Amino acid sequence: MIAVPKKQQPLRYVSTLETLYIVKGSGLETLQHWMGSLSLLRELVIYNCTGLTSLPEEICSLNKLKTLYFCDYPFLQERYNMITGEDQAKIAHISDVHFQIDRYMRWKVERLFDAD
Questions:
Q1: Cβ–Cβ contacts within 10 Å for residue 53, how many?
Q2: Residue 12 CB partners (closer than 8 Å, separation 6+)
Q3: Cα–Cα distance, 98 to 43 (Å, whole number)
Q4: Confidence of residue 25 (pLDDT cuts 50, 70, 90)
């Protein structure tokens, strides 16, 4: 696991990344536009990022993205709801979208931090 400094964008050059966990990003309001360059990304987990209010348009270009967890964000759940959400088109191509964290995902995330 790595911590990414606010002013650096080292992940934008890692086009082979398949899984990305964004955890404890309290100052994070949106994800960076370079996310669209993560063309092999298959799983994106966003957990405990209390300031997050939106996803970048570039998430639409992540054709291999199959699993997305927005863990416990009522605002994002409303905004990206697959039926009524104003921005649902951004994630319509993602087959497995979760707005609530389940036991398995909580275990996976907590295990990441126990490994430190």
A1: 12
A2: 32, 34, 35, 37
A3: 11
A4: confident
